[in-house]
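Notes continue from the previous slide.

Worked example: a multi-chain complex. Inputs as given:
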Amino acid sequence: MSTNAVSTEQKGKEAAGAALRVATLTNDHKNDAVKRISAALMREQSRIEEANRDDLRRAEQDQLAAPLAKRLRFDRSKIDELTPGLAEIATLPDPVGRVRSARELDEGLILHQVSTPLGVIGMIFESRPDALVQIAALALKSGNAVMLKGGSEAAATNRVLHEIIRDATAEAGVPAGWIQLLETREQATEMLALDRYLDLIIPRGSNEFVQWIMRSTTIPVLGHADGVCHLYLHSDADLEMAGKIAVDSKTQYVAVCNAIETLLVHRDAAERLLPEVGAQLAEAGVELRGCEHTRRLLPEASTASDSDWAAEYLDYILAVRVVDSLEDAVEHINTYGSGHTDGVVCNDRAVAEQFMKGVDSASVMWNCSTRFADGYRYGLGAEVGISTAKIHARGPVGLEGLLSYSWRLYGSGQIVSSYSGADAKRFTHKELPTG
Amino acid sequence: MSTNAVSTEQKGKEAAGAALRVATLTNDHKNDAVKRISAALMREQSRIEEANRDDLRRAEQDQLAAPLAKRLRFDRSKIDELTPGLAEIATLPDPVGRVRSARELDEGLILHQVSTPLGVIGMIFESRPDALVQIAALALKSGNAVMLKGGSEAAATNRVLHEIIRDATAEAGVPAGWIQLLETREQATEMLALDRYLDLIIPRGSNEFVQWIMRSTTIPVLGHADGVCHLYLHSDADLEMAGKIAVDSKTQYVAVCNAIETLLVHRDAAERLLPEVGAQLAEAGVELRGCEHTRRLLPEASTASDSDWAAEYLDYILAVRVVDSLEDAVEHINTYGSGHTDGVVCNDRAVAEQFMKGVDSASVMWNCSTRFADGYRYGLGAEVGISTAKIHARGPVGLEGLLSYSWRLYGSGQIVSSYSGADAKRFTHKELPTG
């Protein structure tokens, strides 16, 4: 059956209906379903590879860029990479139903704040089909339903993976309809209008793509459009540390959102730091574009224009600017940055704190690389995305980002009339342990 | 100077600029500013009352409904009501800069999750001018800037209150531009487009008004359109408790969002419970509209139509339906409810847990009144709103709702290259106490 036979709205409705029931599954039940997904991927290896060959053939015909084509490949080694992650998900404690806080309002009137699933997550991602498997397992574990829209390059692979997951979880008794596949861009656009059924959209893709989604929907979006990240070297920065952290932040992996695009240097330290740090960056293959002051100290740097301060190169290029003060560095970052990740190298902790308070970004680093801003490195377990919004979840987001909470009030006959009027009872409002 | 001379976009820009500096104010500084607001209100009492008389005169000319006109009044007694609240805000610990969690990633590499302000809050509210003072003080305490749009009925009062707060906080050294007043509906509409500057919208007003705002902006909205709340009496419900809780949930204050609009009764208990509970409700002045089964037991009830199940009466009217099972009650609530507040009366805690897990609402109550769903009663301190969205904050929302967080990573020279490749260092990922 073609997944296109059913309207996007109908799929949203089915997902929302299923979500209410997925929310009440026990952890054992969900873990069993995740294990069955893992087993089914192994069992159906040849079917997956066959579909993937179709996609790869099409990629060749369409002359897809080599890096994209590479991310498209889904073979035994990809299944082997996914398996430990799925096994780990199946051993985690239930993220749903955790008591986050407990408070006695009065004797025998106890308030719990309890973690709940969000409901329906809409996930839009580009070529990598393994993302489909990961997000499906994470959504299920957190009691959510999902609508998935993968890249059209991976259409055949995604279709088979969706079928395998759908059937494996149906065998495990997970309510039908909990996982929905969308195949066309038109369907993705239709999904963005389903604010009645969807609770969160997680887009992964290019800057323009994510911006377009954020502008096109009133459904909350967890994501980031771009990563214009900075490293600021304060006047007292250690030279060795400055060079090491600048090179790592820029070149450890240039094509990612938490790599730096601009280096800021305090004027009092420019002469001491820039020649050596510049040489190390040049040696690592980085092209430098500097302000006037920078170019006096690094003649090999080309002239930075105003557009360089806002550029996300994602390449071996770095803008360099000398600033007059810590305040100017903070202002530059808040003006040109994207609120993603910014770092400072300095000896004085008070300076670091001032920087970290002043910079309005999801992650701020002191004396370490900006590249640490990542769910795995932060110890969040799986990463469902990095958000530069300030609502709900910010920075690298783990399983928590797929959760909400509800308030549960356990009473023994209490009514509000008793707590109002002349001889009103008083609330005790006593915090209780949650253990 | 007219506040209309400056464009709404310019006001948004000013607020966003000020927000970055308000975010870094110390608690002492913010507390001093809040105390100055309180003192200025006392000092300027006659100026406020004069402006308020203008509004009241206009209300009389425009034949404003009596309850609206009453809420408009702002005199010495209102100032006296506001003063203790402001004093309390000035004694609270700083909500900004709290370490929510701490984790060692490796030796000398410590990650903190730290509470931060959101940035700029857009608040749209109806007639009550005291709401302006409260929200301004709460926003300032939580390090945020605000854009306020009050009801046009209270225009003169709001203008004076805004000036007083602006000037009192300027004296205290709070960055200019942190509080912006909008006066026309056109400006409010313009504000909804400023997703570049605003981080959250909090609307208070009618169902249609809030729904219109939610549909009209991509800025996150904290609020609720309606409150179609339910009370379900299970088969084993205690008769006395059922009557007491039903009457309180319906009539303790009928015009509010957490009052019940529908009573559901398990069929096995209908004959035992309905005649007595119905009589108590009737005695409290409630008109009953029942399903067929209900009307056999309560002949005085009129016939409920399908639209009654979705109605938010906000009045002495209650829909009553007999259901076949707990599951049917949950399904009725998830179908017709608004995800606000729903309660169950039953003896068996397992039944209560099943109800609370199954009902997809911000607050769920067991053996107590739905009217408890309120920030003050929940012990959250000030209430900034009640949200039925699942993102960010849900149910009654306190000061926490005006906060985000950032990740601060404190290092000593660490780079990511050391944690990848052949002899990669391993992360320790050890939770640390936050105290």
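Summary box: Chain B has a mean pLDDT of 94. Residues 129 and 273 of chain B are 45 Å apart (CA to CA).
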